[in-house]
Design goal:
Layout: E1 3-4, E2 11-12, H1 15-25, H2 43-60, E3 69-76, H3 80-87, E4 94-96, E5 101-107, H4 108-119, E6 126-129, E7 134-138, E8 148-160, E9 163-180
Antiparallel strand pairs: 1-2, 3-9, 4-5, 5-8, 6-7, 7-9, 8-9
Length: 184
């Protein structure tokens, strides 16, 4: 079945060819063809999802060897307009029309500060245990290198009884670490 590119309107003979076309020709695409249909979210909506994200990240941070390494949090039924509102002005923001998927990547200390602004909470990426004097945190920089936090949003679709059901999911992948801290 033929597929049409939403960015240049070229018609390709299959969805697979369309995916390859988009990947090769529009690798760093920021254009959202349906952008005008995405309404501005309310501050209340934005805060609700920022809070949900903070709670889920903090649940993934711990204080022992089992809580370090690659982690992922997902929020199902996450509105597309909120993802776009939060990330579309970031340099690493990308959109794939054929996959109906967004991504945004943050790496290093400067990006850690930027995420604190976007999430609207300075301590979103840290969890402390005062009794044990240990800390769990999202790793951005250590002695050897810098690490990233990757956000993505994708739409799932189920077709049943001549009806289409759609649901957006945001996923955040990061590296968690832990260590000791001193109270001063």
């Amino acid at each position: 079945m033929a597929s049409k590119c939403q960015l240049c309107w070229e018609i390709l003979s299959s969805r697979k060819k369309l995916v390859n076309h988009e990947r090769n020709k529009y690798r760093n695409n920021k254009i959202i063809p349906h952008r005008k249909l995405l309404i501005q979210p309310s501050l209340e909506q934005i805060t609700f999802y920022q809070d949900a994200f903070i709670v889920l990240v903090k649940k993934r941070l711990g204080f022992n060897r089992h809580s370090i390494g690659t982690k992922q949090v997902s929020i199902h039924a996450f509105p597309e307009n909120i993802f776009v509102f939060l990330f579309e002005s970031e340099p690493s923001f990308r959109y794939s029309p054929v996959q109906r998927k967004y991504s945004c990547f943050f790496q290093g200390e400067a990006c850690e500060q930027r995420l604190k602004q976007l999430i609207n909470y300075d301590n979103w990426n840290v969890r402390q245990d005062p009794k044990l004097q240990t800390i769990g945190y999202v790793l951005f920089v250590d002695n050897e290198s810098s690490y990233g936090v990757n956000f993505s949003w994708s739409q799932s679709e189920v077709k049943e009884n001549n009806r289409i059901f759609q649901c957006g999911t945001v996923t955040c992948k990061f590296i968690a670490d832990s260590g000791e801290f001193s109270q001063q």
